[in-house]
Design brief:
- This protein is an all-alpha fold.
- The chain is about 75% helix and about 0% strand.
- The chain has helices spanning about 5-10, 10-20, 30-55, 65-75, 75-105.
- The chain is elongated and about 65 Å long.
- About 5% of the residues are buried.
- The model has no long low-confidence stretch (mean pLDDT about 85).
Length: about 110
Amino acid sequence: MYGQDFWERVSWQQICEFLRYGHPMYDEKGTLEERAKAYDKALIQSLHEYQKEVVSADWSNLTPEDEYLLAEDLYQNVLLACARGESISFEAGFLAGMQLGREPLG
């Protein structure tokens, strides 16, 4: 497990995902900064799509339960983008914490 290729097989992203969810949720290439920028764009795009879908949806003649279900269905991509952003923030915080902990210990 800890052979020479260990750090080629595992990344900080995977470690953080495991700590957060108990299993890796995402495995993407790129630096933390590159992935954060990509997900900022993905969040903005999902918000634009959500706006268009809300405006174009037919809200007439819906029961309160149907309105709730439609609204929930429409914002799923926004929630997914937010969750991914939270994972990136968790990873950045984890790495910052490790850096802060390492400095006093030498």
